[in-house]
Amino acid sequence: MAPNLQRPEPVYMQLVAYYRDQIIGGDLRDGQRLPPVREIAEEWKVAHTTAAKALRQLASEGLVTTSNQGALVTYTESNSFSPELRLASVRRGRVIYPHGSSRRISAELITAPEDIATKMGIEPGDQVIRRERVTLNGNAPVQWSVSWMPGEFAEPAPELLSLEALPKGTISLIKDRTGRFPALGKDYYRHCADHADALAAERLEVTEGSPVLIVENYWPDEQGMVEFGISVTPRGIWV
Hints:
Layout: H1 11-24, H2 37-44, H3 48-60, E1 64-67, E2 70-73, H4 83-91, E3 101-111, H5 114-120, E4 127-137, E5 140-150, H6 169-178, E6 186-195, H7 198-204, E7 211-221, E8 224-234
Antiparallel strand pairs: 1-2, 3-4, 4-5, 5-8, 6-7, 7-8
Helix pairs in contact: 1-3, 2-3
């Protein structure tokens, strides 16, 4: 049975959100077919053009491929890195980056550096939680990331200051303890290619000056920044 539609959000995006959640949650698996446009339109009581638009959006997100035979699910966890897909994954209580393993380097409460305060929309000198880790594929580093959260989260979620693994990830923990949850993750690619500085080279075990991809990730809600992160990925992983 289809859920009731809510009108404030475009109807086709409500269909997208429903099927996206079904796909990421595993209810619709890679290789399965979605209902045809006619059936979706009848079930949801929407126009055929609305149903077709929803399928095109799902295709643009890499969740399905469309043809004259209908829409085929093409999602696997390895392509779940867009902001919308990561957020949907978190809603299902899953870690954003479930692949491989990670080496947690630090988790601490510090004074926000000026550049981080600016990006988070807080005052320089405010307290922030800083978490640093390296993601591994086997024993090989494939990403170095640092995430920053408001210091006020430390009291309701002291686990954020621990190096122990967070089974559901930081965003889900923050939601459980504070009720705050980002409406959308907004990825900002600072550079398509940069060069590893000394610290990045050390963390990723590459030569200083090697090509890397640097991505800034913004996760705000209506109250402000829930989490801001910077990730650095070496060449060969992103090309």
